[in-house]
Predict the structure.
Amino acid sequence: MSPIHEQGERFVQPTVPTYNPSVSDDTPRHLLDFRGIYRAFGRLKVLRNVNGQARDGELLLITGANGSGKSTLLRCLAGLMRPQKGRITCVQNGKDLRLEARRRQVGFLSPDVAFYSELSTLENLELFAKLRGVEPARGGQLLDRLGLPRNRRAGALSSGMRQRLRWAFALLHEPKILLLDEPLQNLDAPGRRDVCELLENHLTDGLAIVANPDPMDLPRVDHHVELAS
């Protein structure tokens, strides 16, 4: 694990090679590289010169105090928010993903992901599968793997069950790049074991960037970025 340390408003980290597809002899199948990310809301500077990278089989952990910009950074990486400065390079299956493709193809889990409350868990996933061009059977398989009832209305789920459903949503289209914002939130011990096993399986052929308050909750951490508050 290679931490990044705060120094005033700058971030000092061990040298991480910047990905440049025109000169790289070791092109990864999957990569997410971000350099000099800056994002402010009015006078509030949330992200200041943030750098990091994860490649095939790696988990990059993002930590920081409340309000330090963890969720904002993940939204920028997912293509849901534009950084005001900096560069994001996203490669999946050896192809450079532009902004629109990044929005469609990465797997994103966030407390903000909501579902249609009157639809069942299966109906929600079948709807999202149709929108993503995924076989509808994939939704049922994920529900079974995560121990969720297929026919319960999403509006009747407990907070822990809703979090499991968010995992199913993130994994529905079998992405190679996962962006996970507090992925263990509201899960009981069996739920944490289940999703950590799913994460380990994902890392055999993909990468993950995770915003989580405690690294000890995760199966492993390969790189670590700590954001200034």
Summary: Residues 1-105+179-184+210-229 form a domain with the Rossmann fold fold (CATH 3.40.50). DSSP finds six helices and eleven strands in the chain.
